[in-house]
Amino acid sequence: MKQSLFLLSFLLIISCDGKKSSDPKMLSNSSGNINNLSVVIDNDLWEGNVGEAIRNTLAAPVDGLPQDEPLFNMSQIPPAVFSGFVTKNRTVLKVEKGGEAAVKIISNVYAKPQKLVLITGKTDNEIIQQIEDNSQKIIAAFKSEEIKEKQRRIGLSLHNNNNLEEKLGISIKFPTAYRIAKEDDNFFWIRKDITTGTTNLMIFQLPYDAIKKDDSLVNQIIKLRDSIGKAYIPGPTEGTYMITEEAYAPAVFETIIDNKPAIETKGLWDVKNAFMSGPFINYIIDDKINNRLLVIEGFAFAPSVEKRDYMFELEAIIKSLKIND
């Protein structure tokens, strides 16, 4: 009997060990700069039409910047050397020629967090077609991963401001490097000094019917921005203030912020009667529950330097917004 019990116990231990061995492997932390994309692809594909299609999609200019800057900085890696630490980048695009035409979006393959997009096709044309047909889905997958990473980094040192919740009924996560430059009953101007200028946030609310979705939407948004700029964002000398750049019509999109419909506007601002300008990204959020429109905007003043990463930080901050119902 003792021998039988010992044998049964031994078999149970072996069985448990076997189950443990089938558990998912422990993944190391991913790495990489924000908006840096690893592209795993054969050299001949990268140098040909497939590589051109990838660059046209993922290195396309970011909307709303005064000069062309790519959505992502890309590093091409031949499959033969894609191993070890090279696999740990947070965002990876992998192209394999020979399989059925498809696009697969996979999380945490070689590291965590990580987003890998696998594109397959039997011919160059099939691969190119998959890139073009799924371009928005691919961009959204990578951008979402990078927004989350930027928000994680911002969360390491958060500014604490209870007035936003008390006066506007919102919470938003921004770093301690920012300061409250101006605060009114329903208006906040938040800014951070950078090497060549400033990055800024404006948050305020409007009556629910202040903006109408019709053919004049762009003009309404411009008129709104200009009135707020005149009232709250002065320029360097008396009588100057921020307005919307007249020479370039802003781009307008529909999106979602905090599970609420919103109008996203990207464009350029300048200062009336002064030589200052830069990009802005504006969201008008349909806060029907609270019977208002909530407006939040990020804008940057950074002359003579690239501005993509500054605007990306502002977008990540804005997308951390939570509205109290």
Automatic annotation (TrEMBL):
Q: Which PROSITE patterns match?
A: PROKAR_LIPOPROTEIN
| Pfam families linked | DUF4837 (PF16125)
What the entry lists under InterPro entries is as follows: DUF4837 (IPR032286)
Task: Specify the superkingdom.
Answer: Bacteria
What is the protein name for this chain? DUF4837 domain-containing protein
